[in-house]
Write a structure and sequence with these properties.
Helix content is 28%, strand content 28%. It has 217 residues and is α/β, with parallel strands linked by helices. A hairpin with a 6-residue loop joins strand 7 and strand 8 (182-191). It binds S-adenosyl-L-homocysteine (SAH).
């Protein structure tokens, strides 16, 4: 086994399993996807530290524990179709793609969207579809989704994302009234115009910038 593969196993054991990640499909996907392929090459040795890392455009790849926690909270199953807002490096989308049928991922930086697309192609992850645009508006063409996840902090729950869920669908999103801190929420669409919100934990994400998010500076 290579050194990185060993570190990946340790990451799954120490940072995920020991800290309460239980969903088998999530643990398997995290043990499979090579995080070193989603970060700058000269940072490969840091790939399995439990910390965020820079990916360009002032953005970051999220810390593995938080990625696992969010994906576990989505309560995914194999036939699901999923919406992912904030493609970034594509790491979270890659993990989700190992668990579900199809994933639709939206990114507001064209450079990041293009790089992620090439990465998915190279790694053979062919059930991930990428759109360059404002993810606060979702991706209506492929709605409804069984679940959705947002990897950037929002001032409110963007209504378009709730509207694009099936009844029973789950949206996992960091929401906070300042750009510095958020509460990670699971929003369950329980009816045509009804939702149930659960607070999962406190988190720190880069801001969700868009029409139903923070306004551009
Ligand atoms: N899931 C990513 C995390 C990237 S950080 C990963 O695994 O690497 C969050 C990303 O959200 C950034 O790339 C940022 O550019 C993007 N983002 C912020 N606002 C957005 C919006 N309105 N629509 C789409 N992407 C957005």
């Amino acid at each position: 086994m290579t050194r990185l593969a060993q570190q990946k196993e340790k990451m799954v054991e120490n940072h995920l399993r020991r800290r309460g990640i239980r969903d088998k499909a999530v643990l398997e996907a995290m043990a499979e996807v090579p995080r070193e392929k989603f970060i700058p090459e000269d940072m490969a040795h840091l790939a399995y530290n439990d910390s965020p890392l820079p990916i360009g455009e002032g953005q970051t790849i999220s810390q593995p524990y938080i990625v696992a926690l969010m994906i576990q909270a989505m309560e995914l199953s194999a036939q699901d179709r999923v919406l992912d807002i904030g493609t970034g490096s594509g790491y979270a989308a890659a993990i989700i793609s190992r668990i579900v049928k199809a994933i639709y991922s939206v990114e507001r930086y064209q450079t990041l969207a293009e790089t992620a697309k090439e990465r998915f192609h190279r790694l053979g992850y062919d059930n991930i579809h990428v759109l360059y645009g404002d993810g606060t508006q979702g991706w209506p063409e492929h709605a409804p989704y069984d679940a959705a996840v947002v990897a950037a902090g929002s001032p409110d729950i963007p209504q378009p994302l709730v509207d694009q869920l099936v009844i029973g669908g789950r949206l996992v999103i960091p929401v906070g009234s300042t750009q510095q801190f958020q509460e990670l929420l699971r929003v369950r669409r329980t009816g045509e115009s009804e939702v149930k919100e659960e607070r999962l934990t406190s988190v720190r994400f880069v801001p969700l910038v868009g029409e139903a998010g923070w306004k551009e500076a």
